[in-house]
Amino acid sequence: MKKLVLFLEWGSISGLLVCGLWIFLLTPLEINQGFPQKIMYLHVPSVISTYLAFFVVFVYSIIYLWKRELIFDQIAKSSAEVGLVFCSLVLVTGAIWGRPTWGTYWVWWDVRLVSTLLLFLIFVGYFLLRKAINDKDKEARLAAVLGIIGCLDIPIIHKSIEWAKGRTLHQPTTFLKVENEQINPSISDVLINPLTFSIIFMLSLYTYLLLLRYQNTKYEEKINELISKTLN
Q1: Segment holding 183, helix H or strand E
Q2: Rounded distance, CA 127 to CA 147, Å?
């Protein structure tokens, strides 16, 4: 496990650094948006990493409710923590990208913006709930239910542009565009290649952070158990 964590750490960090040099030094400026478009290479990978992180929460929360083994709750909790970081990054980079592109950082009538903010707030509540409950089993059970409910917001976020029918500042999906039941990106290879590698290494970073946080969670549990036994 330690070797895997070390490999993911150096692989993701070095890969993202290489992608950064590729994007800023070799990738041409996009015709319509110019230099601000380059934030796409951070924003889109953060979106996909957020989706993956909360999907892991969804899966392992269901498994916990089925098996009632705390290891599954620990994985869900660790992924939720990492997902919340990536979701924050999505909101921040989206606002920074929106200012030169749309002329504003935020509008409340955009469904994708509001639904993404809702996802962030749900998982802030997820951790507030955990802090408010002292019983481990009850905490894990209620957190699993909230985690599952929160993840149902992800399809809403992804499909919101189609459902908004033009009442949105976001452009239609390009990288994850689906045609004839197949993913068919609608951006040029010169832009999609660095974006693809950025996504790969960002997902590697997510995996590294997940494993690291999971290890720390196990150590915390052991320390708390030892403290409880000592006090009793």
Answers
A1: strand 182-183
A2: 10
CB 49 within 8 A of CB 202: yes
Structure tokens at 89: 């990054």
Question: Tell me: the pLDDT tens digits for 68-99?
Answer: 999 999 999 999 999 999 999 999 999 999 88
Question: And the tokens for 49?
Answer: 């990493």
Tokens, residue 229: 């036994």
The tokens describing 190, both together, are 């010169």
- Give me 25's structure tokens: 């030094």
d(CA 186, CA 108): 28
């909790």: which residue's tokens? 77
Provide the whole-model pTM. Answer: 0.88
Among 38, 21, 45, which Cα is nearest to 201's? 45
Instruction: Please determine, for residue 130, whether its predicted confidence score (pLDDT) is greater than 60.
Output: yes
Number of domain units in the chain: 1
> Which residues make Cβ contacts (< 8 Å) with residue 80, sequence separation at least 6?
53, 54, 57, 123, 126, 127, 147
Q: For residue 137, what are the domain limits?
A: 2-231
Nearest to 191 by CA among 12, 14, 31: 31
Instruction: Output Rg (C-alpha) for the chain, integer angstroms.
Output: 20
Half-sphere exposure of 122 (CA within 13 A, CB side): 23
Q: Please count the other Cβ atoms lying within 10 Å of the Cβ belonging to residue 193.
A: 12
